[in-house]
Design a protein that fits this description.
Number of strands: 12
Strand content: 15-25%
Largest sheet: 8 strands, parallel
Shape: globular
Radius of gyration: 17 Å
Structural class: alpha/beta
Number of helices: 13
Helix content: 40-55%
Oligomer: single chain
Length: 315
């Protein structure tokens, strides 16, 4: 399965699914923390998606840092980019569609620059599609159970996925999904788009954030041809290996794993608490559990991705 646009500029002669079957791939880290480290304020409801309009060159620069650190896959700044979310900030549907397509192009630009700079390997673009709760910008993506039906959630996701697919990414990242209802909606919404996808839940202590069985949640993807990997992101590093093992056992597909640093966000003080439990030594456990896509999410920057790259290349 290939996208609607050839990836030949940065990944000649090979589809994303073929690359995934051939070798483990390294994902990037948290786009938002890299943008914040560069001095950008992401405090509004659009989060990093705001910079698609306000500072696109910063997004390209953040992607480039991750490619230069060894990442094979850059994830676009479209996690929180939705028609509904942009409409709340006065952006019409036509302009939103342009910004969604731009998110893919900015990552492509970074890949072209990295390739011209001697990257020496195929580089891939994953178009991020965050959960419904991300659009609400109230933390509900970590709770799920929005009170919407599968059909309602499918209607929410499908237009954005169609727009992203038309921009020609190598893969769609259906990520930070908190419950099986939304997982089911995404499995319906992704069908027939002509672009492979991965499905990634956010989990806690061996269950979805909504408290559901991981076996049941992952099973939704088992017979969906568009889905080439299933796993977890935006979770504690110590929860990742077990979840990856369940994902591969239930679906027969390779796992995707990109957890947070392990620090805890304190909403009252708006600060991160505790220390990081993320480290390249965990890559061995993730790969043993079936992971072939590995990287990081919140609070994981280029230095950590460089260390993961070394672990994957030498493991």
């Amino acid at each position: 399965m290939t996208g609607t646009r050839s990836p030949a500029e940065t990944s000649p002669g090979e589809t994303f699914a073929e690359a995934l079957a051939a070798r483990p791939l390294v994902l990037d880290g948290g786009l938002s923390n890299q943008l914040e480290a560069a001095g950008h304020d992401l405090g509004d409801g659009l989060w990093s998606a705001r910079l698609l309009a306000d500072a696109p060159e910063a997004v390209t620069g953040a992607h480039l840092r991750y490619y230069e650190a060894g990442a094979d896959v850059a994830t676009t700044a479209s996690y929180q980019a939705t028609f509904e979310g942009f409409a709340r900030h006065g952006t019409d549907a036509a302009r939103t569609a342009e910004l969604l397509a731009l998110s893919v192009e900015l990552a492509r630009q970074a890949a072209r620059t990295a390739t011209a700079g001697g990257a020496g390997r195929p580089l891939w673009v994953a178009a991020s599609a965050g959960p419904y709760g991300a659009m609400l910008a109230d933390g509900s993506e970590y709770r799920g159970r929005y009170g919407l039906s599968i059909a309602e959630l499918e209607r929410f996701h499908r237009p954005r996925l169609e727009t992203l697919a038309a921009a020609g990414p190598d893969v769609l990242a259906l990520e930070t999904v908190p419950d099986a209802v939304e997982g089911a909606a995404l499995m319906r919404a992704v069908r027939g788009l002509g672009v492979p996808a991965w499905l990634s839940y956010t989990v806690d202590a061996g269950r979805t954030r909504a408290g559901e069985s991981l076996e049941e949640a992952f099973a939704l993807a088992a017979d969906v041809d568009e889905v080439v990997a299933v796993g977890v992101n935006c979770c504690a590093p110590e929860d990742a290996a077990e979840a990856a093992a369940v994902a591969t056992r239930v679906t027969g597909k390779p796992a995707v794993v990109y957890p947070n640093s392990g620090e805890t966000w304190d909403a009252d003080s708006r600060t991160w608490q505790g220390g990081s439990t993320f480290g390249p030594a965990r890559v061995t456990h993730w790969r043993a559990a079936g992971a072939r896509l590995v990287g990081g999410c919140c609070r994981i920057g280029p230095d950590a991705i460089r260390a993961i790259t070394d672990a994957v290349r030498t493991g």
